[in-house]
């Protein structure tokens, strides 16, 4: 999924944030003693909201960390990561376009990172480089906790079959939904995901199916997730309007100052709509937990971020 530096455009996870949000963040870390170093690595990366989020988590938990941006040239991810490690860095968040490179670099992988085929969190310790992927966890937690929508027993429609979609399938299956239908413009990619996750779906008692839009089943779904890159250029993915009902949660993994076209369309069909800002905060909280063993509360940080995003000049 491509990313944009235009803050007015809906953003992918950890991208497209208003510049003033992240630049004010690292300056607000006020601990006096030695602090453990973390960063978000990407290209571009200056608009990332992660330093703001982790600075708030550090304040909230009292953990002595410093968290900055790390811009790596496209062809020099590994040397930049190694230099960060040698300078005492303890862990990294990884964003576009390096999640596959981070997956290759890790010496151990969590099951969810292996399933995703991508890594968004690296932890450096005596045992080596541990790779994890907290994106799916963040999505599930945002839906279930912040949006109070249980996934257990739910009928879920997932739109898209790229990296963003693949990263969230296993954590969703682990919530034991009734049905997961994966639909993609390129139907074969959705079918490949169905094949990849059929054993996990069976273990979860979930009916997993997918392909083109014709795979969408009759009746309203409980949750519809847009994991396509369509919102970046205001394009709607292909779907069936009958999939949306008044009890449907329509979730766009993108976010921006204004509702995405997908959210607007869902609302005109009577559904409740949410963007991916909560997923961004909750994936960060899980990364923080992986590094520090302390779980911050995402809700107040999400509220602050939402205010900043809505502020004049932020979008
Ligand atoms: P990412 O890793 O961020 O998911 P990706 O692997 O390029 O990015 O996948 C982008 C997803 O958005 C794919 O599911 C893509 O559909 P195709 O596999 O058919 O390319 C989907 N996508 C992008 N633009 C779209 C559009 N305008 N309409 C529908 N789907 C779109």
Q: What are the defining features of this structure?
A:
single chain; 315 residues; alpha/beta; Rossmann fold; binds 2'-monophosphoadenosine-5'-diphosphate
Overview in brief:
The protein has 315 residues and is an alpha/beta fold. The chain has helices at residues 19-27, 50-61, 77-86, 99-105, 111-116, 135-146, 163-173, 187-196, 198-204, 261-268, 277-292, 298-310; strands at 36-42, 65-71, 89-94, 108-109, 121-125, 128-132, 155-159, 179-183, 207-211, 223-226, 249-252, 272-274.
How would you describe this protein?
- The protein has helices at about 20-25, 50-60, 75-85, 100-105, 110-115, 135-145, 165-175, 185-195, 200-205, 260-270, 275-290, 300-310, and strands spanning about 35-40, 65-70, 90-95, 110, 120-125, 130, 155-160, 180-185, 205-210, 225, 250, 270-275.
- The protein has two domains: about 20-135 and about 280-310, Leucine Dehydrogenase, chain A, domain 1 (Rossmann fold, 3-Layer(aba) Sandwich); about 150-275, NAD(P)-binding Rossmann-like Domain (Rossmann fold), CATH 3.40.50.720.
- It is α/β, with parallel strands linked by helices.
- The longest helix is centred in the last third of the chain and has 16 residues, at about 275-290.
- The chain is about 40% helix and about 20% strand.
- It has a six-stranded mixed sheet, sandwiched between helices.
- The structure holds 2'-monophosphoadenosine-5'-diphosphate.
